[in-house]
Specification:
This is Carrier domain-containing protein. InterPro entries: ACP-like_sf, PP-bd_ACP. Pfam families: PP-binding. By secondary structure, the chain is mainly α. The chain has one domain: Orthogonal Bundle (Non-ribosomal Peptide Synthetase Peptidyl Carrier Protein, Chain A), CATH 1.10.1200. 63% of the residues lie in helices and 0% in strands. It has four helices and no strands. The protein has helices at residues 3-25, 47-61, 67-71, 76-88. Helix 1 (3-25) crosses helix 2 and helix 1 packs across helix 4 (76-88). The chain starts with a helix and ends with a helix. Residues 1-6 have low confidence and may be disordered.
């Protein structure tokens, strides 16, 4: 499999899956979702939101993220890069 194609496919899959989790499970508005959105200040994430998001990411993408890694993400873009990197590893 060609690595760049996989990388692009992973990025699209991660973006769509995170979008679905945020809209469907965390009930956020699609208009709020952009890579620079601050997870806490803009999107209102709290410990329950992070726990729900991590569980859904694990269930839907098969990626287990550490609490420290997730809490280090300030923006939605940071979270997308973290998940994409974990999938590509």
């Amino acid at each position: 499999m060609n690595r760049p194609e996989r990388s692009g496919a992973v990025t699209v899959t991660v973006e769509q899956t995170l979008h679905d989790i945020l809209v469907d499970d965390l009930e956020l508005s699609p208009e709020e979702l952009h890579p620079d959105a601050d997870l806490v200040a803009d999107l209102g994430f709290d410990s329950l939101s992070f726990a729900t998001g991590v569980a859904e990411i694990r269930d839907r993408l098969g990626v287990t993220l550490t609490k420290d890694a997730v809490f280090s993400c300030r923006t939605l873009g940071d979270l997308q890069r973290l998940v994409s990197g974990a999938l590509a590893a």
